[in-house]
Design brief:
The protein is mostly beta strands. The chain has a single domain, classed as Methylpurine-DNA glycosylase (MPG) (3-methyladenine DNA Glycosylase, Chain A, Roll), CATH 3.10.300.10. The chain has 3 helices and 10 strands. Strands 1, 2, 3, 4, 5, 6, 7, 8, 9 and 10 form a 10-stranded antiparallel β-sheet that branches. It binds a DNA duplex through strand 4, strand 5 and helix 3.
Length: about 180
Amino acid sequence: MVKILSKDFFNKPTITVAKKLLGKFLVRRYRGKRIVLMITEVEVYDGPQDKASHASRGKTARNEPMFGEAGRFYVYFTYGIHWLVNVVTGPKGYPAAILFRAGRTLEGKDIIGPARLTKYLKIDGKLTGKLAGRRTGLWFEDHGIKIRPSHIKRGPRVGVDYAGSWAKKPYNLKLL
DNA sequence: ACGATGATGAAC
DNA sequence: TTCATCATCGTA
C-alpha cells in the first residue's frame, strides 16, 4: 500500500511534520527513471524568528517559496557548488521548511549529507517553488512503514553555529 | 585542514 | 559596486 503525500500532510506544525517524514520516501522521476530514497534525517527551519533560517531576514527572491503554501519545494544553491532541498510546511505567509539531510536507498545504502542527497536525486534550482507531486517529477510516498518515537533521535542542527541560541534547538531529527 | 566556486544580501 | 558569508563536500 503506497500513498502519495498531499498538501495537508505538510500544512501542520513543522516539528510534527518532520517526525512523520522519517521513514517516508522521496521519489524522483528523472529521464524516465525512478529514483527512490527513504528519508532518514531532516532538519527543521521554523518561523521568522529562527535565526538559522533564510527567512529570518524577511522575504527575498530566493527564499520566497518558504513563505508560500505547504507542500512546495524550496531549493537553493550554496557554497558555489551545492543544491539543497527543503519542503515547505505550515500556513501560507508563515516561513517554515524542512531540509532533507540524508536518505537510504532500496538496497540499504545510506546517502548522507544534504548536497549528496540532491545529487543522488538529480535535484537542482529548477524545482524551487514547485508543488510536490508526480507532475513536478518529485514527490513523497508513504510505504506503510511505522516509525516508533524511540527510533527518532533529536539533536542540534548542523552548520548553523552563527545562529546563537537557535543553533542549539533540537531541530535535527534522525532515524536510528 | 583547506580550497572549490558562485549566488546572495548587506553595506557603501 | 564591492564584499563577506554560506543549512557543504572532496581531497589531503
